[in-house]
Amino acid sequence: MKAGDYLVLHDTGAYGASMSSNYNSRPLLPEVLFDNGQARLIRRRQTIEELLALELL
C-alpha cells in the first residue's frame, strides 16, 4: 500500500453504524461509500465533544 490507496474491509459486522456503540469511550467512526470508484463520505466521524456531551460527571 502507498499513500492515496484505498483499504476496504468487507463484512465488518458490528463496526458499522447500525451495530456500533461508544463502548470504552470510543467515538463512532466515519463511513465511506464507494460508488463507481468514487469515495463519498456518508457519515462523518463523531467528535470527542459529541461523545462527552451526555456525560454528567
Automatic annotation (TrEMBL):
One example GO MF annotation: diaminopimelate decarboxylase activity
Enzyme Commission identifier(s): 4.1.1.20
Cofactor(s) recorded in Swiss-Prot or TrEMBL: pyridoxal 5'-phosphate
GO annotation terms (biological process): lysine biosynthetic process via diaminopimelate
Enzyme class: lyase
Keywords from the UniProt entry: Lyase, Pyridoxal phosphate
InterPro entries, per the entry: Ala_racemase/Decarboxylase_C
Protein known as: Diaminopimelate decarboxylase
Native species: Escherichia coli
Taxon lineage: Bacteria, Pseudomonadati, Pseudomonadota, Gammaproteobacteria, Enterobacterales
Chain's gene name: lysA_3
